[in-house]
Amino acid sequence: MARPGTNNAKNSPHAAIPKNVPKAQAYDALAALNRDFEQVLGDLDRLEALRLLPRRWQRKFLKTWRATVEETRAWANFEVVEVLHQIEEREWVRLARIRQRAEKQSEPADDVALPPKPRLRKSRRRT
């Protein structure tokens, strides 16, 4: 087991980030997950509206269940978004390097002689 602070690839914060993730599918899956959480919350509302849980202690449990579902959704979103953030950051850096190389290649070379700037003649004023 590696000690904290050692440079082990398994302990790297980027070690667990998958490569070549189809981003559209990842964002779509996250949206579907949130829709499904919303469905569960809606189902809890329907159960409450049907008065299937009439006792006070049952309504308290219903409130707790809602909070648990919302907490779980927030946690899942946090974890997935954190990974997506790292993926997007890695992609941003990679694409910035590609752009910078392309810009550098399109710059005029230093060894190419550029035409001299025209010199302005000083006018002599006669007084």
Could you walk me through the main structural features you see in this protein, from its secondary elements to its overall organization?
61% of the residues lie in helices and 0% in strands. By secondary structure, it is mainly alpha-helical. It has a domain at 22-106. α1 (23-49) packs antiparallel against α2 (56-106).
**Average predicted confidence as pLDDT:** 85
Order of helices and strands: HH
Give the uncertain stretches in residue-range form: none
Largest sheet: none
Q: What percentage of residues falls in helices of 4 or more residues?
A: 55-70%
What share of residues are in beta strands? Answer: under 5%
Cα-to-Cα separation, first versus last residue: 91 Å
Tally the beta strands.
0
Q: What assembly state would you assign to the polypeptide chains in this entry?
A: single chain
- Count the helices. How many? 2
Taking all Cα atoms into account, the compactness measure Rg is 31 Å
The computed structural class is: mainly alpha
Q: Sum up the overall morphology in one term.
A: elongated
Task: Summarize it.
With 127 residues, this protein is mainly α. 61% of the residues lie in helices and 0% in strands.
